[in-house]
Write a structure and sequence with these properties.
It is built from 4 helices and 4 strands, in the order E-H-E-H-E-H-E-H. The protein is α/β, with parallel strands linked by helices.
Length: 134
């Protein structure tokens, strides 16, 4: 069973003075709603939704939660910012899964961190490129 799903936020407004406050665009909201619908069928219940504190990821998380069954616990995590360290997130995941081996986690973050997370959690040794809401 897949315990961890890693997702990049939906399309955001162009870069601004405060990157943390960039909101999702209309297209970005649509991308996320489409992914939320698909993911709700593939993985109807997550135990945790870990999200970056940036606005666009929190907006993405809110849309994802709307499509999930009740009971998913939202956790805003500073480690999930764009320049966060994949190994720190991996350690947090390892600790959670050591306590709750069947915990299901949806993680919403940014490039390049989502790419580095996949690289650190898999045996491929490759860091894939994520499109928005992927």
């Amino acid at each position: 069973m897949v315990n961890i799903v890693i997702m990049r936020h939906g399309e955001a407004e162009p870069p601004a003075v405060d990157d943390q406050q960039r909101a999702l665009t209309t297209q970005g909201r649509g991308e996320v709603q489409q992914m939320a619908s698909w993911l709700a069928q593939a993985y109807p219940a997550f135990d945790y939704l870990w999200v970056s504190p940036y606005l666009r990821t929190r907006q993405t998380a809110a849309l994802m939660l709307e499509a999930q069954q009740r009971g998913c616990q939202l956790q805003v995590m500073q480690q999930l910012v764009p320049d966060g360290q994949a190994e720190q997130v991996k350690t947090a995941l390892d600790l959670l899964l050591a306590e709750q081996s069947d915990a299901r986690v949806l993680l919403v973050s940014h490039m390049p961190l989502v790419s580095f997370l996949v690289e650190s959690l898999t045996e491929t040794g490759r860091a894939p490129i994520f499109t928005t809401a992927a």
